[in-house]
Amino acid sequence: MREGETMPHHNSLEAGMGTKVVWAGEEEQRVHRATQVPVVVSVAYTYDDMDEWYDVAVGKKPGHIYGRNTNPTVQAFEDKVCALEGAEAATSFSSGMAAISNTLYTFLRPGDRVVSIKDTYGGTNKIFLEFLPAMNIEVTLCPTGDHEAIEAEIKKGCKVVYLETPTNPTVKITDIERVAGAGKAAGALVVVDNTFATPINQNPLQLGADLVLHSATKFLGGHADALGGVACGSRELVEKVYHYREINGASLDPWAAYLLLRGMKTLKLRVERQQQSAMAIAKYLQTKDAVAAVYYPGLENHVNHDVAKKQMRGFGGMLSFALKGGMDAVGILLPKLKYAHRAANLGAVETTYGPARTTSHVECTAEERKAMGIPDGLVRISVGIEDVEDLINDLEQAFKHLS
Fold it and tell me: Nearest Cα to 117, choosing from 158, 137, 152, 146?
């Protein structure tokens, strides 16, 4: 991350979130009086002045040298994320898992210790259970929501505290401010995956986190057509993550950056619609005899509702439910849905359903999923922007096949 390349462009007046998603980060990258940021696909950038070339290469001047390092379209995407999360700097990646893995590998070394929670995305969980231990890094996974247990483990000493809140797929909530305080007291780096909440509903940096991660593939892009990830926070920390990514090569493609940038313009509108519908669907599912449990932080009976209400501005477009009939019931219900993709994605404008064992935690064994409190009959719903009446009617007709 060279000087001036990932700093967000700020107007003199502080704008609201709905305005930022449309305007932030773009002005510096527009050319030829275009109203939109161009897709710059050049791999390299040419310089006639050797001294200027050197100054850009070593970070004394802003600019671009090589596409694996930085790109103007990618920079506009990073700058917009910075503005939404209130960050000094950001660096982006080819996928959400690249953002997560590169960040962890940047700061952890053999002999270090990381404290996290049991309920994390399956790919993240695999890093904790398989890859980090193989590097002689100690991993402690605490019961999600048990703040006393998390704090106790942090006090024992650790290099990184890693949180995902809400979690995928059981949408459990961790008190970021409380855990971040414990992490700071122990001298640990606090990293938060904010994918489910989005910057519309939650800003972990304001709650004490050091770095915020997103799978931009999901809600930020919102149209299921581009892979990407991003990490943001202080310039000092992001420079370290950028250096790891720069050398290891998980760069964001400029075409994907353009699609993500375009998708983010409607982020606030989409999230507001999705979470309004998610609440209605959650309440509907609570009325069905075939449903054993409904997981949505907006419900007052959700185990972490009070924490969610304290740190979130909205409860998000993700929910899940468990069917009493397990996977047999899931196999009957899901194929009957008309307004649904049965797919391993989330955050898109279309509603998407999927059991955890084939989506979020397909990498995990049945025993590992059980240890994380994920029943085989659990179905994750990523609510789209369709008319909620149609989504509920669609569920109603599908449930009739279970009776």
Answer: 146
pLDDT digits (tens, 9 = 90+) for 103-158: 999 999 999 999 999 999 989 999 999 999 999 999 999 999 999 999 999 999 99
Peptide bond into 169 cis (omega under 30): yes
Spatial distance between the Cα atoms of 366 and 362, rounded to a whole number of angstroms? 9
Burial class (CB within 10 angstroms; exposed 0-12, middle 13-18, buried 19+) of 236: exposed
Which active-site residues does the annotation give? 68, 121, 193, 218
| Strongest mean pLDDT among 13-27, 191-205, 364-378 | 191-205
Number of other CB atoms surrounding residue 169 within 10 Å:
29
- Read off φ and ψ for residue 191, nearest 5 degrees: -115, 135
Angstrom distance (rounded) from CA 229 to CA 217: 7
Interatomic CA distance for residues 149 and 147, integer angstroms: 5
* Interhelix angle 267-285/388-399, nearest 10 degrees: 30
